[in-house]
Amino acid sequence: MSCMENGLVISHKKLGRDLYEIEFIAPRIAPCCQPGQFVHVKTGGTMDPLLRRPLSLYDVDEKLNSITLLYKVVGKGTELLTKIKVKENINVMGPLGKGFSLGDYKSVLLVGGGVGIAPLIYLARVLRERGCKVTVLYGAARSEELVAFDRLRSIGVELMLATMDGSAGYKGLVTELLYDKINPHDIEFIYTCGPEPMMVAVKDYADKYGIKGEVSLEENMACGVGACLGCARKLKPEDDHYVKVCKDGPVFSMADIK
Amino acid sequence: MSCMENGLVISHKKLGRDLYEIEFIAPRIAPCCQPGQFVHVKTGGTMDPLLRRPLSLYDVDEKLNSITLLYKVVGKGTELLTKIKVKENINVMGPLGKGFSLGDYKSVLLVGGGVGIAPLIYLARVLRERGCKVTVLYGAARSEELVAFDRLRSIGVELMLATMDGSAGYKGLVTELLYDKINPHDIEFIYTCGPEPMMVAVKDYADKYGIKGEVSLEENMACGVGACLGCARKLKPEDDHYVKVCKDGPVFSMADIK
Amino acid sequence: MTRAENKLNENDLDISVNLGGLILKNPVTVASGTFGYGMEYEDFVDISEIGGVIVKGTTLEPRSGNPIPRIVETPAGMLNAIGLENPGIDVFLRDFLPYLKEKGVTVIANIAGNTIEEYARIAAKIENSEGIAAIELNISCPNVKKGGLQFGTNPDTVKEVVEAVKRETSLPVIPKLSPNVTDIVEIAKAAKAGGADALSMINTLMGMAIDIKNKKPVLANIFGGLSGPAIKPVALRMIYQVYKEVTLPILGGGGILDYKDALEFIMAGATAVSIGTGNFVNPCLALEIVEGIKKYMVQENIKSISELVGAAVIK
Amino acid sequence: MTRAENKLNENDLDISVNLGGLILKNPVTVASGTFGYGMEYEDFVDISEIGGVIVKGTTLEPRSGNPIPRIVETPAGMLNAIGLENPGIDVFLRDFLPYLKEKGVTVIANIAGNTIEEYARIAAKIENSEGIAAIELNISCPNVKKGGLQFGTNPDTVKEVVEAVKRETSLPVIPKLSPNVTDIVEIAKAAKAGGADALSMINTLMGMAIDIKNKKPVLANIFGGLSGPAIKPVALRMIYQVYKEVTLPILGGGGILDYKDALEFIMAGATAVSIGTGNFVNPCLALEIVEGIKKYMVQENIKSISELVGAAVIK
Ligand SMILES: Cc1cc2nc3c(=O)[nH]c(=O)nc-3n(C[C@H](O)[C@H](O)[C@H](O)COP(=O)(O)OP(=O)(O)OC[C@H]3O[C@@H](n4cnc5c(N)ncnc54)[C@H](O)[C@@H]3O)c2cc1C
Ligand SMILES: Cc1cc2nc3c(=O)[nH]c(=O)nc-3n(C[C@H](O)[C@H](O)[C@H](O)COP(=O)(O)OP(=O)(O)OC[C@H]3O[C@@H](n4cnc5c(N)ncnc54)[C@H](O)[C@@H]3O)c2cc1C
Ligand SMILES: Cc1cc2nc3c(=O)[nH]c(=O)nc-3n(C[C@H](O)[C@H](O)[C@H](O)COP(=O)(O)O)c2cc1C
Ligand SMILES: Cc1cc2nc3c(=O)[nH]c(=O)nc-3n(C[C@H](O)[C@H](O)[C@H](O)COP(=O)(O)O)c2cc1C
Ligand code: FES
Ligand code: FES
Fold first, then answer.
1. What is the C-alpha to C-alpha distance for residues B28 and B24, in angstroms, rounded to an integer?
2. CA distance C307 to C290
3. What pLDDT score does C96 carry?
4. Is the pLDDT confidence value at C7 over 80?
5. A81 burial class (0-12, 13-18, 19+ CB within 10 angstroms)?
6. With contact defined as beta carbons under 8 Å apart, do D141 and D84 qualify?
7. D76 interaction partners in chain A (CB closer than 8 Å)
């Protein structure tokens, strides 16, 4: 069940330039969450901006019933979000969308770029709790942007980093690590979230080695629940119908996209 | 000279229910201020609300070059204003409008109701500094709303209070004090600001005893500088032309109004 | 009589309305295209309590809608160019309507055609099924090439299309007027002449946004329909104008975000209101507005909502 | 060639524009009725640096304007019903124009008449004085009973009024189109047929607000003109439509609040822009937008602003 809830903010920190982490108690939403789902957030109390903003579940604390989001300030909605203080409320709708499938895999690969790492953290934790071996390729422009590093370490994943400026890990695109460092025969499934060119490269890799996988897509949203048809998208150019990223996704099978 | 300036907020306190006092440094505006003038305030950073809000100069610190405003939260603009924190900026245009005339009086009367006391504080201080005897009638609904009490005391005025519930001073309308407590022959000039019925009662009193005086009026404003003609008002019903409250006022002679 | 005795109880209130034969239990509906087929919001709100659910615009044949991007936020509003993506009337009646019927929802169909003939055929299909309380005629959708806007901007066609639909159905017929016209009263009169039972107004204003980075229109369709609080003043003005001149009940909407907005519409002449973009901001809005209106009525000692309809109109 | 060499200097930029014979040193003007007679803002900004100052709408005789309230804020906008309060053309020319001339301001008059004859007479008076660079014809003010709106909504009258004014003046004549019409292109074509040198668009959308406490319209005039960011999408759409169909330079405005908005208008087809309600939010806006446009041009290596006009229009 999804619902709308005013979450009590218990922590709100700046993690790096333009990157923030906010945690709030959401007793009705938190128990229903799955990795890959998102919440639809009212970022301010006025009509500007008018619409909610979709943000992935970065993690969920099942004991506290809290939800944590990782967000990057890119425009006025996320800018306003930074003003919400601890002890204030954040209004969210959730959990929304279709999350990642959680097959009975022994070893999977996660590839995250920039703030696209967000849904992969929650996923990695849940997969680890199910005893799955999780390898994570995590890329960003600079080392300061690898803000999920500590979480990934504490989750206990095999972690490889890439930065464009070489300030941490491999110097270059995170997808270049795929061919250098990953043995495709060790991997049963690939999950990826990040900039579209990155995800395309991950899909190419998966296709090449016949590995199945899932991607998390983004599209501008109004309703977030499948009612407005605003977040439509053709998964393949030749498709004659549109999917709704908010409801049919945001997670889609790599087999379905092109 | 007026200008637009980003003032650094150095103090922002809640004085009572819905009543706030904000002080900010305004090196270009502060030196040009006169009692009765106002600043036009951008209450938030977004398009909602879109327009500025006029607020009277509550006091000006000529040494610090700071301006203090007293405001009541009545709607979304003033509500947003409460969110501005110390060390942040407040964007204001000012000083605007025509302030109180400062004749060479020996003894004057000030009558303020509610948040209408704001411009009278600055006026009282300046008049006292010129050696004028200042009597102030100050009314509000309840004693907690008499938030300018301490300032008035420190300015050194003869002060009489009225509250509707009798929790401080006279129980009833502040204008009832006029006839009970004020000797019209002691008063050379009357200044008043507050709810319109109060100001009308003050004018009636002034007319009755042939005392001159000034009122500070309010009207919804867009530009605040006389450009939009939105704050127009007929001072007397029979007038065939409109004055601009922002530019020709907000202070008007009692003789001109009805 | 003391004040306490005088005070109305919420249960004494009469908030049901009659919109040209369409009886709504309360005056708050959700607008077409903003509430899907109801089920999308079932987790958030008891959709059967909403005055009426106007489902997504439906055409004779399925439509896949416009290319993307289809939406963009604007100051206090949004533009949409969905292009009437829908599965067609047959699929709607077969797959979606039963759910709504079972839930006890007051369903209002919203139909659009490429030709007058198509409007009539959809209406006939609706007439032959059960569970729809009224038909809203979308003669004003700015996002489809054929049909759509031009129907709504020409008084003669408005009259014709209403007549054609009326011939096929016994349900209340509620044409939805386009605000993109010089004289809304003329269009409203034409709708009345065609036999309209009520008027729905307003649909979106035609607008656009430019992507300055890529130097092109943001929407793939170039133009889109502007909705949300930004258009509220225009909606109120048109409803006020029509209320004064045309004696048909009005379903008013355009930018409603709270019960005070809803009261503005009612006082300007709307018998009932519709919530569109507001649903995206707050999926519980329709019912919150019903509550807000009730509280207001108790406070103001107003027993029947009908006392408020047109209360601000200066005759 | 290195990047540094390639980079334009702000001084190399050509930001002057030709608006049907009216030469502006930069493409940013301030809109009529929102900047008084310039002097109201002289403390805040060097008004001679603004591309053009369009002064408050002027009529043949003085007008005292509408009763109050005249303005009300709306979501991302405002309604005004000033009612063309102004001292009349003679007083304007005698008392206000000399100040503007002395300051070196590029002055554009904005005129309104009750009859076509009146428009012509005001234009003749302007022709006989000096210091006015162009005439904007307000054929679209929704706030006056006679004249005003009806001129702007009928193509025949639009043509006639432009012709009548053109006969009396050698200055560029720029009719200001009303957005409250079904077909803006038809009106633009009529203006062109009448001899217009450029088009100004858009004036305000007609709207209203209701005071639910007192159950009456907020504005004494009932209706008012909606301006501000709320109307930006509608303004852009109309400019885009007209740019595609009518070969006249456009002075575009409606809701501009920053240089990005201004670029949207230019890319939609406006040769120059006008800032209205934005002046109330930020009295320095016009010049800040000029600076913003210059920075953008340097960044994007665009030498002449004309390269951007209509850049987003898909032919
Ligand atoms: C399912 C989903 C999950 C997401 N999860 C995260 C996350 O965990 N962390 C994070 O930082 N960001 C995430 N995003 C992107 C995030 O929604 C946008 O960055 C955000 O909406 C920008 O809002 P703004 O007002 O700051 O920017 P503006 O640019 O001012 O926004 C303007 C409009 O564009 C839309 N928009 C802008 N960027 C995007 C985008 N990338 N995707 C979709 N809509 C966009 C906004 O929703 C808004 O309608 C996610 C997006 C989707 C669809
Ligand atoms: C010259 C002048 C000096 C003022 N000085 C003070 C002061 O020192 N302290 C103080 O608390 N208030 C003062 N006011 C009133 C203050 O401007 C309003 O309370 C404030 O604008 C309300 O804004 P809001 O967004 O909170 O309320 P909303 O009701 O949301 O405002 C909606 C609109 O109404 C206008 N408005 C609402 N109330 C008033 C009002 N009383 N006067 C004028 N416009 C109004 C707003 O400007 C806005 O355009 C003064 C008004 C004027 C004209
Ligand atoms: C995403 C979206 C889709 C819409 N689809 C339809 C539709 O299919 N049929 C229709 O008549 N109106 C449609 N509309 C218009 C709304 O029903 C409503 O009339 C309009 O949005 C104005 O109301 P609002 O400001 O409350 O949103 C749509 C609006 C939006 C925002
Ligand atoms: C208070 C006010 C007064 C106006 N007076 C006039 C006028 O006298 N003549 C005119 O042609 N337009 C007038 N307008 C319209 C503006 O010039 C401008 O076209 C309109 O406000 C849209 O632009 P904006 O959204 O940038 O404000 C007025 C607008 C406002 C807000
Ligand atoms: S955002 Fe409305 S359907 Fe996806
Ligand atoms: S507020 Fe614009 S003239 Fe006074």
1. 12
2. 16
3. 96
4. no
5. buried
6. yes
7. 47-48
pLDDT in tens, D159-208: 999 999 999 999 999 999 999 999 999 999 999 999 999 999 999 999 99
Position D140 in a domain = yes
Ligand nearest to the CA of B95: 2
Place of tokens 């004040």: C3
Lowest-confidence pick of A41-50, B70-79, D139-148: D139-148
* Interchain CB contact of B240 with A (< 8 Å): no
Instruction: Give the DSSP per-residue string, B95-118.
Output: EESB-------SEEEEEEEGGGGH
Mean pLDDT of chain B: 96
Neighboring chain D residues of C209 at a CB cutoff of 8 Å: 233, 236, 264
For A218-257, write each residue's pLDDT tens digit.
999 999 999 999 999 999 999 989 999 999 999 999 999 9
CA–CA distance from B108 to each of B37, B175, B178, B182, D33 (Å)? 19, 16, 13, 11, 40
Per DSSP, what are the bridge partners of residue B193?
A: B112
Q: How far apart are CA D88 and CA D62, in angstroms?
A: 4
Whether C243 is covered by a domain: the verdict is: yes
Q: Which residues line ligand 1 (CB under 6 A)?
A: A 38, 49, 51, 53-56, 70-72, 74-78, 115, 118, 218-221, 250; C 73
Beta bridge partners, D135, equal D109, D173
d(CA D47, CA D38): 7
Beta-bridge mates of residue B215? B192, B252
Closest partner CB to D281 (pick from B52, B225, B227): B52
- The CATH number that applies at residue D105 is 3.20.20.70
| Cα(C229) to centroid(ligand 5), Å | 20
Give chain A's domains with CATH numbers. Answer: 3-96 (2.40.30.10), 107-216 (3.40.50.80), 219-252 (2.10.240.10)
* Closest of B93, B79, B126 to residue B221, by C-alpha: B93
Please count the structural domains in chain C: 1
Residues of the domain holding D20? 10-63+86-205+229-305
Domain assignment present for C3: no
The ipTM is 0.96
Q: Which parts of chain A have pLDDT scores under 50? A: none
**By the 8 A CB rule, do B249 and B225 touch?**
no
Instruction: Decide if B241 touches D, using CB distance below 8 A.
Output: yes
- Helices D155-168 & D184-193, crossing angle to 10 degrees? 30
Q: Which ligand is nearest to the CA of B249?
A: 2
Distance A108 CA to ligand 4 centre (A): 62
Q: DSSP of A206-251, one letter per residue?
A: HHHTT-EEEEE-----SSSSSSS-TTEE-SSTT-SSPEETTTT-BE
Closest CA to A250 of A232, A238, A236, A228: A232
Q: Is the CB of C203 under 6 A from ligand 3?
A: yes
* CA of A243 relative to ligand 5 center, distance in Å: 10
End-to-end CA distance of chain C: 34
Indicate if the pLDDT at residue D151 is higher than 80.
no
Nearest to C6 by CA among C307, C303, C263: C303
pLDDT at C123 over 50: yes
Question: The pTM is what?
Answer: 0.96
D311 part of a folded domain: no
Per-residue pLDDT, D107: 97
Q: Which of residues 65-104 of D touch A (CB under 8 A)?
A: 75-76
Quick one: how far is CA D136 from the chain centroid? Answer: 8
Residue C280 has pLDDT above 80, yes or no: yes
Among residues C112, C141, C231, C293, the one annotated as catalytic is C141
pLDDT of residue C2: 42
Chain C closest CA to D286's CA: distance in Å? 19
Q: Which of B200, B216, B223, B199 is nearest to B250 (CA)?
A: B216
Closest CA to B137 of B101, B170, B99, B184: B170
